[in-house]
Amino acid sequence: MEVRARAPGKIILAGEHAVVHGSTAVAASIDLYTYVSLSFSSDSDNDGKLMLRLNDMALELSWQVGRIKEALPDMGITPSSPKPCTPETIKLLAALVEEHNNIPEAKITLAAGVIAFLWLYTSIQVVVTSELPLGSGLGSSAAFCVSVSAALLALSDSVNLDFGHHGWLSFGENDLELVNKWAFEGEKIIHGKPSGIDNTVSTYGNMIKFRSGELTRLKSNTPLKMLITNTKVGRNTKALVASVSERATRHPIAMPAVFKAVDSISNEIATIIQSPAHDDIAITQKEDKLEELMEMNQGLLQCMGVSHASIETVLRTTLKYKLASKLTGAGGGGCVLTLLPTLLSGTVVDKVIAELEGCGFQCLVAGIGGEGLQICFNSSS
Ligand SMILES: Nc1ncnc2c1ncn2[C@@H]1O[C@H](COP(=O)(O)OP(=O)(O)OP(=O)(O)O)[C@@H](O)[C@H]1O
Ligand SMILES: C[C@@](O)(CCO)CC(=O)[O-]
Ligand SMILES: [Mg+2]
């Protein structure tokens, strides 16, 4: 049987990093997905092979199932009760990755994703394809963990699904919760200390407010249009999250005040997003406030030390067109969000995009707040 799962990437409208330290953040799914396809073979004896094909990386990795069983002690874990991967198990998995597969030096950050996959693994043939740029702030790691967890859980007895359904199917509430918990365990391996916002918005989709593991679904009254600019400067979320934590340890009075200010900004953004706006004047007033709050959040992200020269170039360029921007995700390069007001002319949008692309950046206007995780039991979508 073949199972396919798809999980979306995300943008963070406000609150990244501060959310790791207990502040509120606001995030929305985007219509770019990571796809995972699992083919379940009955031949899962010790001679069988586990094969992982990472299409985006042009990498194929494989392990003898017997070797995996030999290397990993029986941990007595059942699919219905998500558990963290212990540091000892991470070491064993890392050794397995090193032992059997030569991941090229240039792709070495992938090892964390492969370890997360092995941790989530229970099956035989896996193919991963993503529309998301990896390591750019659009939640590729979370979409990866959510789609892998969902496909694996669908093949276990732990979720309730209609296997006869044709086309993309959504999970029920309890099953979404289970997928989200497992995906969080995968994210821990990739991010170190994730807040859980990325896997949660990828699982549930739409627009959410998130604080200390609790999500509130937001009902947006006006569609938001955002330009996403990928600076193409590579960075690593785990290292950036750790650097903010170190700064917080060095400045135990100043940094909590920064996180508190971000909390207020996120709450105000959530209120504005949900407030009614029936005419152009009201919509413009809402967008003006959102722009100001995005700029304030960007200033605080600079305080946390996660901006970058490439991000500053995007900010300066969009400001020339009176457009407000902020980094999204972990920063340090990666992607920048720019609010495109409803009444902004298409000509201005074209000009900003041309200027940004002239700097070597890549622009896209993504659909925001769509479906979260979905699954499919036939090969055609
Ligand atoms: N399609 C994929 N195939 C294989 N590994 C992936 C894939 N998507 C993500 N990963 C893993 O996730 C890592 C990137 O995660 P990272 O958290 O640094 O960036 P991000 O999730 O794109 O951005 P952010 O966390 O800021 O939203 C990759 O180096 C790899 O280990
Ligand atoms: C930087 C961060 O806040 C968001 C990354 O998309 C990390 C996290 O919340 O896990
Ligand atoms: Mg990530």
TrEMBL record:
<keyword id="KW-0753">Steroid metabolism</keyword>
<keyword id="KW-1207">Sterol metabolism</keyword>
<dbReference type="Pfam" id="PF00288">
    <property type="entry name" value="GHMP_kinases_N"/>
</dbReference>
<dbReference type="InterPro" id="IPR006205">
    <property type="entry name" value="Mev_gal_kin"/>
</dbReference>
<dbReference type="GO" id="GO:0019287">
    <property type="term" value="P:isopentenyl diphosphate biosynthetic process, mevalonate pathway"/>
</dbReference>
<dbReference type="GO" id="GO:0004496">
    <property type="term" value="F:mevalonate kinase activity"/>
</dbReference>
<keyword id="KW-0444">Lipid biosynthesis</keyword>
<feature type="domain" description="GHMP kinase N-terminal">
    <location>
        <begin position="122"/>
        <end position="205"/>
    </location>
</feature>
<dbReference type="InterPro" id="IPR006204">
    <property type="entry name" value="GHMP_kinase_N_dom"/>
</dbReference>
<keyword id="KW-0808">Transferase</keyword>
<keyword id="KW-0067">ATP-binding</keyword>
<keyword id="KW-0752">Steroid biosynthesis</keyword>
<keyword id="KW-0963">Cytoplasm</keyword>
<dbReference type="GO" id="GO:0005524">
    <property type="term" value="F:ATP binding"/>
</dbReference>
<keyword id="KW-0460">Magnesium</keyword>
<protein>
    <recommendedName>
        <fullName>Mevalonate kinase</fullName>
        <ecNumber>2.7.1.36</ecNumber>
    </recommendedName>
</protein>
<dbReference type="InterPro" id="IPR013750">
    <property type="entry name" value="GHMP_kinase_C_dom"/>
</dbReference>
<keyword id="KW-0756">Sterol biosynthesis</keyword>
<keyword id="KW-0418">Kinase</keyword>
<dbReference type="GO" id="GO:0016126">
    <property type="term" value="P:sterol biosynthetic process"/>
</dbReference>
<comment type="pathway">
    <text>Isoprenoid biosynthesis; isopentenyl diphosphate biosynthesis via mevalonate pathway; isopentenyl diphosphate from (R)-mevalonate: step 1/3.</text>
</comment>
<dbReference type="InterPro" id="IPR036554">
    <property type="entry name" value="GHMP_kinase_C_sf"/>
</dbReference>
<dbReference type="InterPro" id="IPR014721">
    <property type="entry name" value="Ribsml_uS5_D2-typ_fold_subgr"/>
</dbReference>
<keyword id="KW-0479">Metal-binding</keyword>
<dbReference type="InterPro" id="IPR020568">
    <property type="entry name" value="Ribosomal_Su5_D2-typ_SF"/>
</dbReference>
<dbReference type="InterPro" id="IPR006203">
    <property type="entry name" value="GHMP_knse_ATP-bd_CS"/>
</dbReference>
<dbReference type="Pfam" id="PF08544">
    <property type="entry name" value="GHMP_kinases_C"/>
</dbReference>
<dbReference type="GO" id="GO:0005829">
    <property type="term" value="C:cytosol"/>
</dbReference>
<dbReference type="GO" id="GO:0046872">
    <property type="term" value="F:metal ion binding"/>
</dbReference>
<feature type="domain" description="GHMP kinase C-terminal">
    <location>
        <begin position="288"/>
        <end position="340"/>
    </location>
</feature>
<comment type="similarity">
    <text>Belongs to the GHMP kinase family. Mevalonate kinase subfamily.</text>
</comment>
<keyword id="KW-0547">Nucleotide-binding</keyword>
<keyword id="KW-0443">Lipid metabolism</keyword>
